[in-house]
Specification:
The chain starts with 8 loop residues before the first helix and ends with a helix. With 648 residues, the protein is an alpha/beta fold. α3 packs across α10, α4 packs parallel to α11 and α7 crosses α8. The longest helix has 17 residues. The chain has an eight-stranded mixed sheet, sandwiched between helices. The chain is globular and about 75 Å long. β4 and β5 form a beta hairpin. Helix content is 32%, strand content 22%. It is built from 21 helices and 30 strands. Among the domains are: 143 residues, 3-Layer(aba) Sandwich (Rossmann fold), CATH 3.40.50.980; 72 residues, Luciferase, Domain 3 (Luciferase, domain 3, Roll), CATH 2.30.38; 129 residues, 2-Layer Sandwich (GMP Synthetase, Chain A, domain 3). Bound molecules: 5'-O-[(S)-ethoxy(hydroxy)phosphoryl]adenosine. 5'-O-[(S)-ethoxy(hydroxy)phosphoryl]adenosine binds next to α11, β20, β24 and β25. Its EC number is 6.2.1.1. Its cofactor is Mg(2+). This is Acetyl-coenzyme A synthetase.
Length: 648
Amino acid sequence: MSQSYAPSPEFTEQANGQADLYEQAESDFEGFWAAQARERITWSKDFEETLDWSDAPFAKWFVGGELNASVNCVDRHVDAGNGDRVAIHFEGEGGDTRTITYADLQKLVAQAANALEELGVSTGDRVAIYLPMVPEAVVAMLACARLGAPHSVVFGGFSAEALHTRIADADAKLVITADGQFRRGKPSPLKAAVDAAIDHGDDESPVQTVLVVRRTEEDVRWVEGRDLWWHEVVDKQPETHEAQAFDSEHPLFILYTSGTTGKPKGIFHTTGGYLTQTAYTNAVVHDLHPESDVYWCTADIGWVTGHSYIVYGPLANGATQVLYEGTPDTPHKGRFWEIVDTYDVSILYTAPTAIRTFMKWGDDIPAKYDLSSLRVLGTVGEPINPEAWRWYREHIGGGSAPIVDTWWQTETGAIMISPLPGVTELEPGSAQKPIPGISAEILDDEGKPFTEPDKVGYLVLTKPWPSMLRGIWGDEQRYKDTYWSRFGPEYYFAGDGAKYDGEGNIWLLGRVDDVMNVSGHRLSTAEIESALVSHEAVAEAAVVGANDETTGQAVVAFVILREEAREQADEVGEGSDLVQEMRNHVAKEIGPIAKPRTIMVVSELPKTRSGKIMRRLLKDVAENREVGDVTTLADSSVMEQIQSGLQK
Ligand code: WTA
C-alpha cells in the first residue's frame, strides 16, 4: 500500500505557492502568466500582448516587452539595496572557497561584458562556454546575456569532437574555457580539447578568440593572437557596464541535447518567457525565500538544470546559493552533507541517481552531519523510485522535508510537472500534476486523451508555455517534426511514456524514443552507435539502454566486427583489449558519460524484414530477460545465435 504525505500547516502557511494559483491559472491563463511576468521580472519596456500563438508552433511571449536578463539577475538586486547579500558561496573541489555578493557579481559581470565587447562580441554573436563549475561560468553566461550574445554552454565532460560539432553548428566566434578542471582531486585538461576542436582539420573554425580562465595552473598550448588569459583581459576592465534592453523574444542561449538521430539538437531559448518561468518555478516549487534560504542545486552548468536553476531562476529571484565544483565523493563520501552543514543549506535540488548512490554508501554517512537546516528537497532528471524517495526524506530531510519530484526537459526550459510543496499531498515516485499555468494530458496510440488509471500512454503538453523552446537552431523543420507532428499540431510530444494512478497523479515512465537516460543525462542510441561504427574494427553496432540499479539506465552495445578485426582479435570478451579500446573510442568521440557499460561482440543483429534493428529484443538480452516475440525478425534464429554466442 502506498503512503502519501500531506504538507504540515506550518509549511503551508509560509509557502510561496498556494492552492489558489491553480484556480487563477485555470480561469485566466494569459492573465496569470502576464501577472507572473510583471511581478517577478523588471521590464525596461512593458509588453503589449501576453502570447502570440498565431504562427504556431513558433510562440512569442510578452510581445513588445524589453528587458535585460543580466540586469534582472544582478543589478536590480543591488539597486534594491541587497548588494551585500551573498549570491554565491563557491566551494572548490580542493576546499578553496569564495564568497561573492550581488555587488561583487555586478562588478564581475560588468567587467566580463566590457571585455567581450572589446574582443568584438556584439548582439547576436554566439559564444561557446566550456568551463568547469567555477564562478566564472556564471559570470560568463551573464556577461553574454548582458550583451544579447546567445551563449552555447558545452558540458566540460564532453570531448573535443563533441565540442567541435557544437561550435560549428552555432557558428561561435569566441570560446570561453579554462586551462583545466579538478576531478577527484586531480587536474584534467580542458583547453587542450578546445585546441583540438578548433584545429579539427576538415573545415575552417569560426572561432577567432579563446578566453582562458586559470584554474589548475597546468601548462597549456598557446596560440598567439587567438588565446587570451581571462585575468589579463577581464580584470583590468571598468567595473560598470551600461546594459541595453532587448526584445522579449531575443535569443538568450542555445543548449545542445540528444535526440533520436545522431546529430545533437541545438535547443534555443529566448529571454522574457524563459526568465519568467524559471523565476516563478524556483519561487513556488522550490519555495525559495531569498532573504532567508540557502539554496543548492547540484547540477552542472553544462546541463539545462544548471542554466535554469543555478543561473537564471535563482539569480532572478535574488537567491543565496552554493556552487560546488566537484564530485560527491571527493575527498570523502560525506562531502555533500558537509557542505549542507557548513552553509546551512535549506533547499537542496539533486538527481535520483545521486540519491541511489548515497543510499548504497550507507545511512551512517549523512548521519554524521547536522542536516537540520534542510526544509525543501527536490529531484530532477529521471523518475525517482519510491524507496529512494523515502530514503531521501528520512535520512536527508529529517523525516519531514517535502520532496518535489520535478519533471521537465531541456526543451521546456523550466519545471512543468511537480507538486507544490505547501499544497500537494506527496505521492513518492510520481511527479503528480502540471504546475499552475501548465496543461498536460496522456494520449493513447490513436492520439486520444484518456484518464483511466494504470493505462500506459504518451505525455503531451496541450498549451504553449513561456519558457518553451523557440526552435532547433538552424532547423525549423526538425522542430516541427520532432515535437509537433506525432499527434498533430495542437500537442507538444514530449517523448516520455506516462500513466495516471487512481488519484489522477501522473507517473512518468521514461523515454519512448531512442533516447537513454543515464544518471539523468540524455544520450542518444544513434549517436553512440555512430561513434562505435567510426572505430576501424566495427562493422555494425546497436545500442540499448538497460535498467541499472544506480544510474537508472546503462549503455549496452552490441557490435559486429569487421572481418579483418575478427581475424586479428584473439579475444573479444568483456575485459579484452579490443572491447576496452572501443569503450575509450566512444569516450573520445562523445565524452566519458557515453562509454558503454557493456559491449557484447555478436555475429548478427536482430532485424526486421525492412532492416530495422529490433532494440526491444536486445534490451531483453541486456536485462537478462527471456527474449520476447521474434516472429517479425527477418531471420528468427538470430536471437539464438546471439545468446549462444554470449554464453561461450
Ligand atoms: C526525464 C532535464 C521522470 C524525461 C531537466 C525527460 C524525468 C528527460 C524527470 C529530459 C522526472 C526529467 N521524472 N523523468 N522528474 N525529469 N526526466 O532534457 O525522460 O536533460 O524527457 O532535462 O529527462 O532530460 P533533459
